[in-house]
Design a protein that fits this description.
Helices cover 32% and strands 22% of the residues. The protein is an alpha/beta fold. Strands 4-3-5-6-7 form a 5-stranded parallel sheet, sandwiched between helices. A 4-stranded antiparallel sheet has the order 10-11-12-14. A 4-stranded mixed sheet has the order 19-18-17-20. Helix 5 packs across helix 6, helix 8 packs parallel to helix 10 and helix 11 packs across helix 12. The structure holds zinc ion.
Length: 441
């Protein structure tokens, strides 16, 4: 299959070839950052590192980490761009903002070549999902400064697809577009895929039967890498769903492939990945740790050893698709920022989703961490599908309580509410509430 890979030379490179590409790009990036970015000049000086001292990938640990908080503080101290910026402003072509749950979002700037790199890495992923130039693509992300819409749109266009611009359309208008035009590929957050399916069902529209969608891809949240969530999306659209993890500050850094092996391939020629344990040491294949990326192509804001706060597991097996790119087992497994400790047990919201979604009658859910009768407790609120009969409620509650107790290693309280009682999410979901840390008012 000659068309399986968009860039076979890189996607199937030998380890030696890939290391050569990475080493060359790393040296260029480092020299560029050390010369042109005041932020990195200061940072390297205070760490006592000369750019020339990093010659190979093995030298990378000599460099200090970069954090998102640092970048935000830098932009606040030197508004509006901060001085990570390593090119004159007139070379900048694009601005995007990271979505912020707290504080001001980070503004991220790109040159023309940086932007090409971002959407071209994204195009590699779409190609691996099976998207081809004959496809008609809808990128159903919101029109605004967030990168999701723009990168999905440009990536599909990069492959030669016909792309429908629906960023500013309502959900009703998008459903109408899907019914009227031969859209074959849909991109959106996993939460929005479920939201869209529910909205269509309310109008009596069966997206699986009444549209031509054959592929959906999902980014912004890790839901599509959770088997039960993916199965739900695939059933709703009658299509194959794929996970595309990305970061505004780095790249569309990974993708699943049509082999559907559970592995996520890493665009490691765009961004060099390190997976580090709590002591900052690289994990062995099969091990889990924090993902740290060094950008190998961006010139406007060239990030070195950027801590993503994402937890991933380095794969210890090969994908049958033949790609030699470094791979992770199952996408982003958790965010360090989302980690909760309850009675000494560490709980990630993703794990709750993995356990709750396989139950067909679970339409929506919410995770509440609370103090209950003097103890830390987890309350799982369930919004059931309207087809759940009163007689089945007790059974569902018992099964969920048991599955969650075994899966999380801690007893939880399950509350089955009324259909439609929980909020729905048309972008990224916020299903977690921690009442232990929320300030009462
Ligand atoms: Zn593969």
């Amino acid at each position: 299959m000659t068309t399986r890979y968009l860039e076979p030379r890189l996607e199937r490179a030998s380890r030696a070839e890939m290391s050569r590409v990475q080493t060359r790009r790393l040296r260029q990036q480092l020299a560029h950052a050390a010369t042109h970015s005041p932020f990195y000049r200061r940072k390297l000086r205070s760490a006592g590192v000369k750019a020339g001292a990093v010659r190979t990938l093995a030298d990378l640990p000599k460099l200090p980490f970069t954090t998102k908080d640092e970048l935000k503080e830098n932009q606040a101290a030197k508004p509006p761009w901060g001085d990570v910026l390593a090119v004159p402003l007139d070379e900048v072509l694009r601005i995007h903002m990271t979505s912020a749950t707290t504080g001001r979002p980070l503004a991220f700037l790109d040159t023309r070549d940086d932007w090409y790199g971002f959407y071209h890495s994204y195009a590699r992923a779409l190609h691996a999902f099976g998207v081809r130039r004959s496809d008609v693509v809808m990128a159903a992300f919101s029109y605004g400064p967030w990168i999701g819409y723009w990168s999905g749109f440009y990536a599909a266009q990069d492959l030669g697809c016909l792309v429908f611009p629906v960023g500013g359309l309502s959900t009703d208008q998008r459903i109408d577009t899907l019914l009227t035009y031969p859209v074959t590929v849909l991109g959106c957050t996993p939460s929005y895929a479920l939201f869209l399916a529910e909205a269509a069902a309310r109008k009596g529209v069966d997206l699986a039967r009444n549209t031509k969608i054959r592929i959906t891809w999902h980014t912004g949240e890790p839901g599509a890498s959770i088997p039960a969530t993916r199965a739900k999306i695939e059933a709703a659209f009658g299509a194959r769903a794929y996970d595309l993890p990305g970061l505004t500050e780095i790249a569309a850094w990974g993708f699943e492939c049509e082999a559907r092996s559970g592995l996520t391939h890493i665009n490691e020629d765009y961004c060099y990945p390190e997976v580090l344990d709590e002591q900052g040491r690289p994990v062995e294949p099969g091990g889990r740790g924090e993902l740290v990326f060094t950008s190998l192509y961006r010139k406007a804001m060239p990030l070195l050893r950027y801590r993503t706060r994402d937890i991933v597991q380095l794969a210890d097996r090969r994908c049958p698709c033949g790609r030699t790119l470094t791979a992770f087992e199952g996408g982003v497994l958790g965010r360090l920022d989302d980690m909760k400790k309850v009675r000494g047990v560490i709980v990630y919201p993703r794990r709750v989703e993995e356990l709750v979604r396989p139950h067909a009658h679970v339409q929506e859910f919410q995770i509440v961490f609370r103090r209950h009768e003097g103890l830390d407790d987890i309350l799982i609120r369930i919004d059931p599908s309207p087809s759940l009969s009163p007689a089945e409620r007790g059974g569902l509650q018992t099964k969920l309580t048991e599955d969650l107790r075994i899966g999380l290693g801690i007893r939880v309280t399950v509350d089955i509410g009324e259909p439609g009682s929980l909020p729905r999410w048309d972008h990224k979901a916020r299903r977690v509430r921690d009442e232990r840390t929320e300030v009462p008012f």
